[in-house]
UniProtKB/TrEMBL annotation:
It holds the Pfam family DUF134. It comes from the Bacteria. This is DUF134 domain-containing protein. It comes from Ancylomarina longa. Belongs to the UPF0251 family.
Length: 128
C-alpha cells in the first residue's frame, strides 16, 4: 500500500529540441512521483514522508531512490517520462479528460459520464 494523495498533473514529460523519433520513454510510477514531491518539493524528511505514504522508511527510501534514478536517466538520455499508476493507493477516484486534459475526482462515480469542464465523454480513469 503506497498512499498517493493525487496523481501527477501530466501524462508525459517530453524533452524539446531533440529528435524523438526513437520514442524511448521511462515509466515513472505515481508513488515514485509522490515520494519525490514529498521529499524534494514539500521538503519533508523521510520519516514524515514515509508516514504519509503508509510505508516503512526503508521502503520509502527505495521508492525515492528509484524515482531519482529514473528522472536522472530521463534527463541525461533525453527520454520521455510517462506517469503510470504503479502500486499507488488513492482515497478518491481520479479521472482525466483526454480532450481538455482537466483532472477531477468524484467521491463515488461519474454521474453524467462526461468532463465537468468541456463535456467531452473521452474520459480516462487514473486509478488503475
Ligand atoms: Zn474536458
Amino acid at each position: 500500500m503506497r498512499k498517493v494523495v493525487e496523481p501527477p498533473h501530466f501524462k508525459e514529460y517530453r524533452p524539446v529540441g531533440i529528435n524523438l523519433k526513437r520514442r524511448q520513454s521511462i515509466d515513472l510510477f505515481y508513488e515514485e512521483y509522490e515520494a519525490l514531491k514529498l521529499a524534494d518539493y514539500d521538503l519533508l524528511n523521510h520519516k514524515e514522508a514515509s508516514e504519509l505514504m503508509g510505508v516503512s522508511r526503508p521502503t520509502f527510501a527505495r521508492i525515492y531512490e528509484s524515482a531519482r534514478r529514473k528522472i536522472a536517466r530521463a534527463l541525461v538520455e533525453t527520454q520521455t517520462i510517462k506517469t503510470v499508476f504503479g502500486n499507488a493507493v488513492m482515497d478518491k477516484e481520479w479521472y482525466m479528460c483526454n480532450n481538455c486534459h482537466a483532472r477531477f475526482n468524484i467521491p463515488n462515480k461519474i454521474i453524467q459520464g462526461d468532463c465537468p469542464v468541456c463535456r467531452s465523454e473521452n474520459i480516462e480513469h487514473l486509478n488503475k
